[in-house]
Amino acid sequence: MGKFEKGFLIGAATAAHQVEGNNKNSDYWAMEHMKYTSFAEPSMDAVDHYNRYEEDIKMMAEAGLNAYRFSIEWARIEPVKGEFDEKEIEHYRKVLECCRNYGIEPVVTMLHFTSPKWLIEEGGWENEETIGLFANYCKYVVEKLGSYMHYICTINEANMGLQIAAISARYKAQMMEKMKQGAGADADKEAAKGTEGTVQVGLNMQKMMENMENQARENMEVFGVTTPQVFVSGRTPKGDILVMKAHQAAKKAIKEVNANLQVGLTLSLHDIQAKEGGEKRAEEEWDEEFLHYLPYIKEDDFFGLQNYTRSVMDADGICAVPQGAELTQMDYEIYPQALEACIRKVYKELNMPVIVTENGIAVADDTVRVDFINKATDGVANCIADGIPVKGYLYWSLMDNFEWQKGYSMTFGLIAVDRSTQKRTAKPSLKHLGGLIERS
């Protein structure tokens, strides 16, 4: 017997840049190929999902999954400002049709971190004009493809910029303290490792800081600015609200085309817990991560919740991971109970349907992944039993892929990919996830 009733969305998620390959008009492609890059390696062909999407969608369906969250790549649709590529629209039409043909509900994300390079050259995600440009892109896509969609996430992890700004500040403070103490390179590595494990995206903090001066010169050559404001840059408070305004403008544009489409965004959330003395810091962290966004999302149709682990706070801020705790390849603490806690906290403040748009684990041992999925989805089932309208659980990620600055070393996937041949091999966790839903 499945854990969830028929109609519940059980599936997996990807992001275009991480799986499609050869996203050559994007900001990330440019950054990956810079001499002083912070990326461990370039994305190149990725896992060639652009050409192999039917094979991947078929594998999902055969395993029992019924939903697929993927992103449409703005840099493909509008490679030059104001010029839309009909060939690329047709590509995503085929992906959407393929989902429908295999009984898979598409959950479409309009922006999953990557942007057209031209947008960054014009000021990127700190430029007010980006609000209208993003809305215009969303309107165009929905005019062409909206009839194939039901759920749309405008922006993935809209709060990521503030999280990165915060960990950058923490890392710099730690480095200043280490310098005072005369600590060496090993201390730098430990500080980088500790800060990277507190944000839910692949970063190379040490490399970023070491290359800062050289990167500034190269950024001027590549983007025309010393500090390009890509989506995953440290956000200013003004830029943080700009992202929210872009979401609202996009939602308005989408609804004007098709009022029946269900529109929301996703936020990266931690289960924020307080040790004695850390209660105030925990409240401040939850406000920055979630509460201050409420005025901008309270009229949405659903909320996309993304969670991987917890953050424990004391009077000084975020604590180190407990001694002896099991860690993922991303240096997150393995803590699947965090998902249930986040769902309950979110629903207390935001009375609307919730879709878990990302939750997953980067490990080599698939039995650990299966155990994580079991415990995380137990929490989802507990929430549903208590009347919280959780509509779906989408595991991150469908397949091992390009984890941003960390390259291909992180294995989150339900499907393994041999990148020398692009051969797919389903892990037992794929079928296990599909078995969590009622079939009759």
UniProtKB/TrEMBL annotation:
Keywords: Glycosidase, Hydrolase. It comes from the Bacteria. InterPro entries: GH (IPR017853), Glyco_hydro_1 (IPR001360). This is Glycoside hydrolase family 1 protein. Belongs to the glycosyl hydrolase 1 family. The lineage of its organism: Bacteria, Bacillati, Bacillota, Clostridia, Lachnospirales. GO terms for molecular function: hydrolase activity. Pfam families: Glyco_hydro_1 (PF00232).
